[in-house]
């Protein structure tokens, strides 16, 4: 039987998915207004757009001299392959506490030119913290005398669970730290100079579409990419050659034809973020929205529980809530979808009785409050 929710409690926008995120209508309209669709990405109008994106991100993150904002086609998945080819010299060490971290670790683990990776794991809902002192117990592979990793890698945030990791400078000057920020970049204030590559795709907090990766690269990461490009013993396909992406980005272009609509919406979102007060303001917006959900769960008398138990690990942009066995989160999600409130299902591989709700900067507190009212209405009718 279909349950119809009262129109006066529905959110103004029913999209709460963790990617792609909701996009402001005026930013979609900007695609049509730009006059750029169907034009050459090597000509000034598109290059000016790329320049605006790069300058806006540089301003958002207050990047120091020597750092570069680098763009390329694909998403985080493409960048994992690029990093495996162009940043890991011999061995990587991964902090894994969810789906994204495990997928990057699988890339370096399977690479035939690398020593098997060091994996530090934590269960879903927790955070795997790297010390920077990890070493192989028994080196193997092509470089049997190599025991310390030259790359450390971990997610800043796991989209699958809503767990947030701190970023700390670890390792020595010869070791790079790569941080996957796909679902948190733009939603939290962070000092990216504590790592060497802070990379993300723009379809989450940056409220654009897929098909692009953006990496903020330190001078050390750029140097490593150019060194490995020049290595005579390494296969380096152009698409996976980070040095080529760097060389093109400093010219305000991409190696391959980019998705212009993605760039236009990304630029619009960056300009909105800057006008609203930058990363500090974006984090404040997201935390205000997510806190509505955390407070609601904690006041539910045991019916609903935040999946991430430690408060300092709780995400401001992805909230995962476990439901008591007396309630079916799947049933609630189906009713919500029937009423136009969509994409609150849990991550597919977790298999938990939970909802996963995005509170990216584009999501208003009022809409999250309306979502709570809708779920409460459904629960009371069960």
Question: What features would you describe in this structure?
Answer:
There is one protein chain. The protein has helices at 25-34, 44-60, 76-86, 99-110, 219-230, 242-249, 260-276, 278-298, 329-338, 365-380, and strands at residues 68-73, 92-96, 118-121, 151-155, 157-158, 163-164, 176-180, 197-200, 212-217, 304-306, 318-323, 354-358. Helix 2 packs parallel to helix 7 (260-276). The protein has 382 residues and is of the alpha/beta class. It has 2 domains: 7-16 and 278-380, Aspartate Aminotransferase, domain 1 (Alpha-Beta Complex), CATH 3.90.1150; 26-273, Type I PLP-dependent aspartate aminotransferase-like (Major domain) (Aspartate Aminotransferase, domain 2, 3-Layer(aba) Sandwich). It starts with 24 loop residues before the first helix and ends with a helix. The strands form 3 sheets. A 7-stranded mixed β-sheet has the order 1-9-8-7-4-2-3, sandwiched between helices. Helix content is 35%, strand content 14%. Mean pLDDT is 95; it is low at 138-144. The chain contains 10 helices and 12 strands.
Question: What features would you highlight for this structure?
Answer:
382 residues; alpha/beta; Aspartate Aminotransferase, domain 1; 3-stranded antiparallel sheet; globular
